[in-house]
Amino acid sequence: MPNRWLRVLLFWFFLALIPTAKAAEAINFDFVDISGKHYRLSDLKGKWVLVNFWAPWCPPCWKELPDLNDLQKQRSDIVVIGIAMDYNNDESVQYLLKKHKVSFPIVMGGKSRDENNPIKQVGPVPFYPTSYLYAPDNQIVMVKMGMVDQDMINQFIHSYP
């Protein structure tokens, strides 16, 4: 029981820091999507990059996939990269991709405890969905634990200095 309360306390402490934090130095991630294409943060300089961690068993994740699709289609200055995590098999991920007609790149992230999972190239992912937004200068400018939508991202980008 004490371990649970400590995690809750740390989560809220981390969450409280996010709105006041300035842009954070980002790791130059290198992801390979399901079609074999590499996505390196340094190659995406000049664009906004949204890295969205999700899991097939997560209903809020399913709900945000269509909105992320629309965001990717409607803005040429943003790249959405989905990271599928904690799935039992590739078929569960493929099913959701087809069901939601996902058009943005998807990286198969594996289990969150795996040694080489993509989380280690981005930052903490306490639960799904969690998204990281990188500014065109490749700095992390927003971390959102929970669902994101097109309006939220567009408003943030519009108000970003």
How would you portray this structure in words?
- With 161 residues, the chain is an alpha/beta fold.
- It has helices at 2-17, 59-74, 90-99, 150-159; strands at residues 30-32, 38-40, 48-54, 78-85, 106-110, 130-134, 140-145.
- It has a five-stranded mixed beta sheet with strand order 5-4-3-6-7, covered by helices on one side.
- A hairpin with a 5-residue loop joins strand 1 and strand 2.
- The longest helix has 16 residues, at 2-17.
- Residues 8-21 have low confidence and may be disordered.
Topology pattern, helix = H, strand = E: HEEEHEHEEEH
**Content-based structural category:** alpha/beta
Terminal-residue CA separation: 43 Å
Query: Helix count?
Result: 4
Q: Which quaternary structure do these chains form?
A: single chain
User: What does the largest sheet look like?
Assistant: 5 strands, mixed
Beta strand count: 7
Rg value: 15 Å
Principal-axes shape call: globular
Overall pLDDT: 86
Fraction of residues in helices? 25-40%
- Widest sheet, order of strands: 5-4-3-6-7
In terms of DSSP E residues, the strand content is: 15-25%
Any low-confidence stretches, pLDDT <50, length ≥5?
8-21
